[in-house]
Amino acid sequence: MRAKNLSLTAIFASLYAVLVIVLAPISYGPVQLRIADSLIPLAIIFGWPAALGVSLGCLVGNAYYWIGALDVTVGPVANLLAACTVMFLRRRPFLACLAGSLVIGLMVGGYLWTFFPPPEVFGLNLPEWAGMVISITLSSLIAMAGIGYTLFQTLNRTIFKSRQS
Fold first, then answer.
1. How far apart are CA 16 and CA 28, in angstroms?
2. Most CB within 10 Å of its CB: which of 31, 73, 100, 118?
3. Residue 82 CB partners (closer than 8 Å, separation 6+)
4. Residue 124: what are its φ and ψ, rounded to 5°?
5. Number of domains in the chain
């Protein structure tokens, strides 16, 4: 069982890192759509191996496109906390994805404004940190509650059907 969990962790870490690095133009910056975050809701199905994998993958991806030690340390912790939130709320998967997105938005947006000027948000004159938190939360909602929830639903149905056979 330990080998299976280690393998799953490595697979999730690799997938996350590859998605972040290959999709680099949209994975970084003040306006980002980190498609790799769509893997976070899979912690509902795969548990700790997925949670640890998306955290390690974030560490690799953030270290590859180094913008600072804060990003390399807090980003993976945000992913771990988002995955733990998703696992805790697993009985309500869509709510879990929404809550996980908020964790990412607050944590990553809470520091990313120190590296980039935030985007304009609906023409509002917001403090820099607030603009970045909103931007990252919105992008995380697309990745986790949109793409990730759909991915979760598809895999969950497939796994459920195969277990019934």
1. 14
2. 100
3. 37, 40, 100, 101, 103, 104, 144
4. -80, 150
5. 1
Phi/psi class of residue 85: alpha, beta or left (left: φ > 0; alpha: ψ in -120 to 50)? alpha
The predicted-structure confidence for 26-59, as pLDDT tens digits, reads as follows 898 888 899 999 999 999 999 999 999 999 999 9
Residue (of 50, 152, 159) closest to 92 by Cα position: 152
**DSSP symbol at 29:** S
C-alpha span between 99 and 84 (Å, rounded): 10
pLDDT digits (tens, 9 = 90+) for 87-114: 999 999 999 999 999 999 999 999 999 9
Q: Which residues contact 118 (CB under 8 A, 6 or more apart)?
A: 30, 126, 128, 129, 130, 131, 132, 135
Q: What is the mean pLDDT of residues 8-25?
A: 97
Residues 6+ apart with CB under 8 A from 9: 48, 49, 50, 52, 53, 56
